[in-house]
Amino acid sequence: MNTAPKQVVTRFAPSPTGYLHIGGGRTALFNWLFARGRGGKFLLRIEDTDRERSTPEATAAILRGLEWLGLDWDGDVISQFARRDRHAEVAHEMLARGTAYKCFATKEEIDAFRAEAEAKGTYALFQSPWRDADPATHPDAPYAIRMKAPRDGETVIDDQVQGKVTIKNETLDDMIVLRSDGTPTYMLAVVVDDHDMGVTHVIRGDDHLVNAARQQMIYDAMGWDIPVWAHIPLIHGPDGKKLSKRHGALGVEEYQVMGYPAAGMRNYLTRLGWAHGDAEFFTSAQAMEWFDLKGIGRAPARLDFKKLENLCGQHIAAAEDAALLHELEAFLAASGQSALTQTQSALMLKGMGGLKERAKTFPELLEKARYILVSRPISRDEAAEKALDTVSRGILKSLTPRLRDASWTKNDLEAILTAAAAEHGMGFGKLAAPLRAALAGRTVSPSVYDMMLVIGQDETIARLEDAAA
């Protein structure tokens, strides 16, 4: 007898009605980490049964968001709408098993039932008169297929995050699984798809917790294994209220356009509502190794932009230079900015070591790289203009002959600049301001030596001559 554990299979199943929400991104990430860390599969299903609201553009936006986050999926993207015949087949199989029945109640009859209950000031679940009707009495008319929900007792959801959740069966109605026009309902489609895809763990938002009770009845009705449930809390804004536009960006792609690196975003979203001891900064490989369902908290997580920026800064500093340049170029394209020239790319790579220190986002990194991206004559801000007074310009003018003879190593440059500062009775710090102004057009910039070494001897001397003129 084979007792080997089943391969872990998770899925992310968004509806293509808009962008990939930041909460959806975290749900996808949790599923991806759980599967990848266990050698399992991470599947992607687009729940596009709502034909009026589902759009190809929204599907494309969701895929772009997942790709930017670095979440790869196994196999083809599955369309729920394309599987509607299979959903209908299962509904009819439930009929044959006696776990569902044909309901001929019209919309008018159901509306009248609800209106009567409302008039009495009561809330009552619609109880179809066709539940136990003799098939011989069935009319030749359109019908919906309803499942036979248990009328008494309780349904227990054994949830890995929420614990045991008990729902009284008297609160669950005989829900429709196949409409009279032959289209399946969401509840049926989700269960059939998850079963057919071999999903072992359903990790999703806790707004689906009540749905789990209804879906569990379908699993039972078909005699299928119930997956492991894990309903994760939603993300709230910094004020503890449900996340909305007033809190800032809601779409995953917006965070790319704002200049956050994907590795930092993954780290932050993993840590948002999940913990592994006191670990804050970690790589994706570590997250895969550590991630489990027990580490997910029950309380809603709060978005914290300062923590996000802090983690992103650490990931920028730790990234390989070439990989960082590649992601920077993707950021420029996503945010509609001009691409780097071949020369700029080469210089960026050369100077990346100094650029990535203390930069928390790509716009901050680009601001530090201004000395690489500008061309002569360099425009200067107000502080830079002030730094280039008459005395400073004179010092820069006297420097250029010495720099022409320099070997252009950091040691040689340090010796020349330190000597020049001493000759004028100042420390190097005082000389650095006009040098920065000349080289970058700013008084805040990377190290003077880094800039000189990156842009080279000829460009450095030309910029100093421009500033001294």
TrEMBL record:
GO cellular-component terms in the record?
A: cytosol
Q: Identify the residues that the record assigns to the Glutamyl/glutaminyl-tRNA synthetase class Ib catalytic domain, covering every copy.
A: 7-309
Q: What class of enzyme is it?
A: ligase
Motif 'HIGH' region: positions: 14-24
Binding of ATP: at which residues?
Answer: K245
Q: InterPro entries from the entry?
A: aa-tRNA-synth_I_cd-bd, aa-tRNA-synth_I_codon-bd_sub2, aa-tRNA-synth_I_CS, aa_tRNA-synth_I_cd-bd_sf, Glu-tRNA-ligase_bac/mito, Glu/Gln-tRNA-synth, Glu/Gln-tRNA-synth_Ib_cat-dom, GluQ/Sye
Question: Where do the Aminoacyl-tRNA synthetase class I anticodon-binding domain residues begin and end?
Answer: 329-467
Reaction catalysed? tRNA(Glu) + L-glutamate + ATP = L-glutamyl-tRNA(Glu) + AMP + diphosphate
Known function = Catalyzes the attachment of glutamate to tRNA(Glu) in a two-step reaction: glutamate is first activated by ATP to form Glu-AMP and then transferred to the acceptor end of tRNA(Glu).
Report the protein name in the record.
Glutamate--tRNA ligase
What species was this sequence derived from?
Gemmobacter lanyuensis
